[in-house]
Amino acid sequence: MDPASQDINLNSPNKGVNMDHSDNLPDVQAEGAAGNSAHPLPPGLTEEEAEELRIELTKVEEEINTLRQVLSAKERHASELKRKLGLSPLNELKQNITKSWQDVQTSQAYLSASATLDDITHSEAYKKTQETLSEAGQKTTAALNTLGTAISRRLGDMRNSPTFKSFEDKVGNLKHKVVGPRGNGDAVSSPTDTTPTQENPPF
Questions:
Q1: Dist CA 48 CA 26 (whole Å)
Q2: 175 CB-near residues (< 8 Å, 6+ apart)
Q3: Which tens digits make up the pLDDT trace of 164-187?
Q4: pLDDT tens, residue by residue, 80-131
Q5: Out of 38, 72, 146, 179, which could bridge 183 as a Cys pair, Cβ 3.0 to 4.6 Å?
């Protein structure tokens, strides 16, 4: 089967079918996607113009392939030079980040934002707000100190009051009745001790 007589359009229903277009094809055949003459010509385009476009398309595709090969060779050469210089991808990334940050710092938007921030920090409203917050913090600290002192004094006064002393005595008596004399640090009596014990304990 002659390749020139095959339909190379992969979406064509006649794909692979032997078709004879020898009377329709001119002497010059275009390669690649442009070489398919099974498609009808667009309106307003003559066969000669279509053939010129096909030839030009073939040349452009060849140039694209050549440029791809040149680019690939240049990239390999650049990689080799970087390897010889000891530049690793990590070093390149660090350099790119540093350069990007420097670009950001010198950008107009960053400089404008920095200037605005400086204006704000030097403004009277900012200074007054800062002073107010500082004073509020100092007053809060003083109030908490005063409150702590007052609570300590109040607890001391309460402990010295007759009501608290009476309550303390009652708790002490109850403890003495429940625990006995050993609760005050006295030695624990042995079972052979002759000290009389209470017949009826309070509980």
A1: 10
A2: 183
A3: 778 878 888 877 778 776 655 555
A4: 998 888 887 787 788 889 888 888 888 888 878 888 888 787 888 888 888 8
A5: 179
pTM of the model: 0.29
CA 34 to each of CA 18, 52, 83, 142: distance values in angstroms, whole numbers, following the listed order: 19, 10, 42, 89
Q: What is the 3-state secondary structure (H, E, C) of 59-93?
A: HHHHHHHHHHHHHHHHHHHHHHHHHHHCCCHHHHH
Helices (H), the chain: 47-85, 89-106, 108-121, 124-160, 162-179
Q: How far, in Å, CA of 53 to CA of 39, rounded? A: 14
Residue type (1 letter), 169: D
Nearest-5° Cα angle at 166, 162 to 170: 170
